[in-house]
Amino acid sequence: MFRFIVRRLLQLIPTLFGLSLLLFIWVRRLPGGPEDAILGERATPEMRAAIRRSMGLDEPILVQYGRFVQRLLRLDLGTSSSTKRPVVEEFLERFPGTVELTITALVIAIGVGIPLGYLAARRRGQLLDHLSVGGSLVGICVPIFFLAYVLKAIFSENLGWFPSSGRQDPTIEATRITNFFVLDGLMTREWDAAMDALWHLVLPGLALASIPLAIIVRITRASVLEVLNEDFVRTAEAKGLTERTVRGRHVLRNSLLPVVTSIGLLTGGLLSGAVLTETVFAFTGIGAFIYEAIGQRDYPVLLGFIMIISVVYVLVNLLVDLSYSLIDPRVRVR
Amino acid sequence: MRASRPKAAVAAIAVAALAVAGCAESDREDSGGSNNDTLVFGVAHDPKVLDPSFASDGESLRVARQIFETLVRPEEGGTKVSPGLAESWTPDEAGTTWTFKLRSGVKFHDGTDFNAEAVCVNFNRWYNATGLMQSPDVTAYWQDVMGGFAQNEDEGLSESLFKSCAAKDATTVDLTFTRASSKVPAALMLPSFSIHSPTALEKYDADNIGGTATDVKYPEYATKHPTGTGPFKFKNWDIANKSLTIERNDDYWGDKAKLKTLIFRTISEENARKQALSSGDVDGYDLVGPADVEPLKSEGFNVLTRPAFNILYLGMNQEGNPKLADLKVRQAIAHAINRQALVDSKLPPKAKVATNFFPDTVEGWNGDVTTYDYDVDKAKQLLAEAGAADLTLRFHYPTDVTRPYMPNPKDLFELVSADLEAAGITVEPIPLKWSPDYLNATTSGSEHDLHFLGWTGDYGDAYNFIGTFFDRQKDEWGFDNPALFAQFQDADSTPDMAERVEKYKALNKTIMDFLPGVPVSHSPPTIVFGKDVTGVKASPLTDERFASAEFKS
Questions:
Q1: Which CATH superfamily is domain A94-168+202-327 in?
Q2: What are the φ and ψ backbone dihedral angles of A50, each rounded to 5 degrees?
Q3: Could you give the ipTM of this predicted complex?
Q4: How confident is the model at residue B325 (pLDDT cuts 50, 70, 90)?
Q5: In this predicted model, what pLDDT tens digit does every residue of B44-79 receive, in sequence order?
Q6: DSSP single-letter state for residue A250
Q7: pTM of the predicted model as reported, rounded to 2 decimal places
Q8: Which residue of A has its CA nearest to B144?
Q9: At the N or C end, where does chain B have fewer CB atoms within 10 A?
Q10: Boundaries of every domain in chain A
Q11: Chain B contact for A279 (CB, 8 A cutoff)
């Protein structure tokens, strides 16, 4: 297992270099440059040229890439051209928000999706089955911004149960340690801050969960149906095992493998960009920031964030691979 | 029994959570304020930097206007130059040396005295900037107004308009300029000319812009310690929660702020800002969508309309399309567009059709210029006379942007192009993403025939509008008109205000005869506050003073 992990981590190095080169070229092929975003309506050709000179953008692209790699080897991702703050700092302030949101969405999607998919399969053809299959289709089809709008209109504007935006009420003077607001609140025993941050996660979490929830319901349902028809289930039933044992130990466990795989992929997707959810809920995360960075032609942020996310993506999928052996003892990672 | 892994995992998490709880120190102070003296205001973007010397974005300037003060400032709710940290000011005969009489008894937030010395420290700081501080990205407004520095390091910079500062006594200061200019004193109202505490500037190393040419890093002063004389002082900028908190300056020299705490919170999406207001997350917000104005009013929110201080125009490029170099063709286009219908149907209430390239709130506006009424037959006739009956025009418009003067570019494009087609002109639509594609395409090169663009004034002087557009040869318009450029130079260097205003009026007449583009409209932007918030006066310059805001009890 240890060798497996080391090998996977070593594979990361060439991947990252290839990725950085592709990204570097792609990002600079975007029309225009940061100078236009910075200057806006007041730009003159001389001012544009001066900014490009001051940012070193007038040098050959290979020279620029060489400088980038040099810095990367020192783990320095440079400074954002739009905020003038170190990219790493920007990331550390924004990524925790995205992680909290992703975890919330996953908890909702898994917590509701697996039981619902399982029940739908057990009651195939009955009302619950139709409802969950139909519902999951809606979940996939409804655009997030619309869902967000409706959720906010009902639960914050009308009922006033949940806040409509942000990560925390700014009038709460919360201490920041890790920038995971819920965790910070627990660590400092600022219970009100922790609860408030948790409260802020509910609506965006629901909106973001809609698609993964629907996917998990469908995959679980299909997988359970398949396993139910397997010979070993019939054998187990014929052996006279209790229904509880058959369901828990044989059916559910065997149907979870494809579900776990899909969760791994979904997590990567959620982490790399809950762009819409973060934007409509004014939630500080990396998705909305990357989107803005594209508009601003903020090269260092684009490169840096995407590089870090790639590392995270690889790590999450490594964890998923490792978790296979937890669920199914027949799988051994090598 | 086999160890149940899930159970073990749950137990481990529970232990970890217990271990984590209470393991760090809370640095919370007992604030003890009630909700009635804390106002949360929703804004569209994070501020970029807290030292306004380096700022040119609206949100940084909005914060700066509460923390800092300038020598002169706009009258509340207007554009006229009024006393700020200076009580009065007079130019010498040549218009190159201005004497400012300063307010006495003013202190900076750190307790340092405000006086003539402090003013000179600030002007010399800007003027003597070196290295990265000369980057146009860093000191945009200084360069826009003053042109250059004591020692210019880039050949693109021009000679500085500012020359020297002399403290005559504690409350008298002389600012000397290299020539008389329309920019003085009006441009000194810009927040970028805010006066900082000399002590704080030195203590927090305000000029130490670090990093390399490729990545500029602002010093600590500009992100954590802005120190001015204003009614609010900086408290905290929580980037992870997109909120910036400032609090009342209890030692303020003038009327003290009624709020104890003011929080600016970033909500970039327009509809999210509106929902945040109606759910009570914020007590007001800026950049209200034109479609939301009436609904918000009918729900009882406190909707304020700013006097229009902007211009939307239809730009024409005479180099890109030689037909456009023919005055008759430009006149035909002006006659072909039904601007009144456009203003009535697509712009916010109280918007007006423009006849000059700036609104009538600015001195120098001329009611007696050539106007071009909507007249399709006349347009067709003019085109025929010019031999341009089969004219095809490339029409650029931006797709994804809302500007204060242009809430919905696509709608505007559709109306105007339908008007042009009705006059027999073929329109080739070219939609582009605002930044940078659209700005690039319309302000450089000559691939554009028609385009929409506009301007919101920085301060109340006509030159800031028409000078910005037409005082020299620009790719945007593609014409060379030395007589017009000379007329601008003459007006700019006339120190006497009354005389200068007359020259602006004449300039407006010249421009509207030459018709480089068609002025379309002036739109009043809207700002909204909660039902129980009063006291804020809308400003055409977005210079709303939150110090006078309060909650109705």
A1: MetI-like (1.10.3720.10)
A2: -65, -40
A3: 0.77
A4: very high
A5: 888 989 999 998 888 999 999 999 999 999 999 888
A6: I
A7: 0.82
A8: A42
A9: N
A10: 2-73, 94-168+202-327
A11: yes
